[in-house]
Amino acid sequence: MAAEHGPTAGEYIIHHLTHLQNHKPKAVVDFSVFSFDSLFFSTLLGIVGCLLLWKAARKATSGVPGRFQAAVEMMVEMVDSQAKGIVHNATSRKFVAPLALTIFVWIILMNAMDFLPVDLLPFIWEKIYGAAGRDPHHAYLRVVPTADLSVTMGMSVAVLLICLIYNIKIKGIGGWSHELVTAPFGTSKNPIFALILGVLNLAMQLIEFVAKTVSHGMRLFGNMYAGELIFLLIALMGGAWSLSATGIGLAIGHIIAGTVWSIFHILIIVLQAFVFMMLTLVYIGQAHDAH
Q1: For residue 263, what are the CA distances in angstroms to 3, 65, 125, 253?
Q2: What is the pLDDT of residue 3?
């Protein structure tokens, strides 16, 4: 009987980058496919983020704040100051500022899942999957929701819908419709030129909405997907160690690279959450501006 070998490096990475889904996609874009792992962890972390903010608000005191309350207050003040500088409508800020704060905390928590050992939760899931009488080799699980394009694009589309709502709310359906066909190139008194410019303006407006939405979601996804892949490559270095000069070198390199990348990744996690939040404020702020 042939000895059973572990997965190759390529198989290991592919396994870790495969989602737990209801079925395989039948096309490049298949809206009938659901990534259960992304849905579960994003929902769970969203609830955790809301509970943390609720706990900070419930236990807030007027005296000297504790560390947790001080950290939350600093974060709230930072988001509120950014919202005031971008969204000048005080009524809109009552919704937009808490929205931006929620997005910031939620994305930080989802990004931070990258700090868990890459094999920890998948290993536990394989044991549960195997205990249920299923093949553990098909126990797929990805734990970083923001490394899933469907999650980041879903968030960016939600921001787009909010921007469209504010365009109509602030400018009215007539004012926004007029803006769609007159900005950015203006219009003309000549009917033929006015029609041509109207078509060009509408096309530019649609391209702008699509470009902002796609880049908004792709930026977060690309950074987190790359970070996840680097953690997998570092894990492979540790998995290849042996009692030899090369093996010991790989083990030492695994520790050093893992430590350095984890420290640097703290900046990436917070920065990407901040960038997504700021772009959300900018896009909503633009919906309040008349051209």
Answers
A1: 40, 28, 27, 15
A2: 45
The pLDDT tens digits for 11-25 are: 999 999 999 998 888
Q: Is there a contact between 44 and 110 (Cβ–Cβ < 8 Å)?
A: no
- Exactly one of 188, 215, 242, 262 is catalytic; name it: 215
- Cα–chain center distance at 9: 27
* Whole-number Å distance between alpha carbons of 184 and 187: 9
Q: So what's the pLDDT on residue 260?
A: 95
pLDDT at 2: 43
Q: Per-residue pLDDT for 5 more than 70? A: no
pLDDT at 93 over 60: yes
Distances in whole angstroms, Cα of residue 70 to Cα of each of 45, 60, 65, 83, 143: 22, 9, 6, 20, 30
Q: Rounded CA gap, 59 and 51, in Å?
A: 12
Establish whether 150 is a catalytic residue.
no
Query: Is 201 an active-site residue?
Result: no
Pick from 195, 213, 208: nearest CA to 279: 213
Cα 97 → chain centroid:
18
- Among 219, 242, 244, 262, the active-site one is 219
Q: Which residues of 65-75 are buried (b: 16+ CB within 10 A; e: fewer)?
A: beeebeebeeb
92 is catalytic: no
186 — phi, psi (to 5°)?
Answer: 75, -165
C-alpha span between 216 and 278 (Å, rounded):
10
| Catalytic residue selected from 223, 242, 244, 262 | 223
256 vs 7, which has greater pLDDT? 256
